[in-house]
Amino acid sequence: MDEEYDAIVLGTGLKECILSGMLSVSGKKVLHIDRNKYYGGESASITPLEDLLTKFGLGAEAAGSYGRGRDWNVDLIPKFLMANGQLVKLLIHTGVTRYLEFKSVEGSYVYKGGKISKVPADEREALGSDLMGLFEKRRFKNFLVYTQEYNHEDPKTWKDFDARVQTTSQLYEKFGLDANTQDFTGHAIALYRDDEYLNKPATDAINRIKLYSESLARYGKSPYLYPMYGLGELPQGFARLSAIYGGTYMLDKAVDEIVLDASGKAIGVRSGEEIAKCKQVYCDPTYVPDRVKKVGQVIRCICLLDHPIPNTKDALSTQIIIPQKQVARKSDIYVSVVSHTHQVASKGWFVAMVSTTVETANPEDEIRPGLALLGPIRQKFVTVSDYFEPVESGDASQIFISTSYDATTHFETTCKDVLDIFKRGTGEDFDFSKVKHNLGEEE
Fold first, then answer.
1. pLDDT tens across 78-91, in order?
2. Which H helix or E strand runs over 204?
3. In the chain, what are the domains?
4. Which segments does the entry list as coiled coil (predicted)?
5. Mean of the per-residue pLDDT values for the chain?
6. Which of the 8 DSSP states describes residue 287?
7. Does pTM top 0.85 for this prediction?
8. How distant is the alpha carbon of residue 159 from its chain centre?
9. Residue 407 and residue 349: Cα distance in Å, rounded?
């Protein structure tokens, strides 16, 4: 460990592995260290099933009734990829797709008035949706057509609405959309986590609605993708990418200290008697508890099911979003379901996850509306995790810290954090053209 690196990355959570790949691709000399023996950190996939049962304090012998233990790959923090989103673009541009196989998620649902309905994402679906009355369907159809045709560079497509200054609330008003339609559009299509977006310029909302529709257009059933064998494949894919560009990996290596110079700037990482020198450190919050603040908690409940979710037409995978207002909360509840078709469970079995941001002293009570949608649950595992954010940008210390994983079941917030950290650390946006690849736009 006596050579000097441009960057040392601590932890092999998905965010850190993506960063390691991006930094390596950008020509940086990267050393990647993790105190664990496995990839993924808190976003790991657990296999076989016996390990999951043991982790949550159950005897491994209980695995016998769930088929073959090695057929299970259970994500601790499952998330779906938007088919046309940032992470898929990153995977394609960086060539990581050569190591992975994806399957589209079969359904995208939203909760309203005690039941779930398919999220309408194009004009045809809008007209057939049971979420709206006849006249509202027409208004919503016109709204969708408008957002698809809106071009920020071409004022002719704006039709007397300037999204740079006028708010999303004003955009909804322009089309006469009722509160219910605004609710599922904002939370299940634009994927906002609260209603603050309503009073902000509509540009971002239009972009998000476009992203949902473009992602849906690629595969048809839903806008979401999920990797075969679980999310644990993603960190390893980016680790291989980093290695191709000269990155060095060390698993099962203790990290005792980030070494600072007299001005408080990171100059290395110490493990036992060894010090690896570097110019920058990138890490998850667990490596620098004194440089992060707790801003909340997330509850997640992993559920093992032997049946598909009721009212989803027996979908083998699905996402359900419960908008905050539907259950008198400040934050949405997310439900994700994957199954044996993704090689993450034994045949005939399903893995559901219900998650939300904790708001009360009784977190399990808060996810009850999500659990109620699942039907009979064979086994469940509940975790409540602290949510940390860095207290500094990293400019002075050259230590760049990711946030914890939020309650969402999609990757858009994760990508935003990664691209933001990359820009803080390098002073520039990630340049996709630096990647040597010849994969083209893969489907």
1. 999 999 988 888 88
2. helix 203-219
3. 4-43+232-293+388-430 (3.50.50.60), 57-106+295-387 (3.30.519.10), 119-219 (1.10.405.10)
4. none
5. 92
6. G
7. yes
8. 34
9. 24
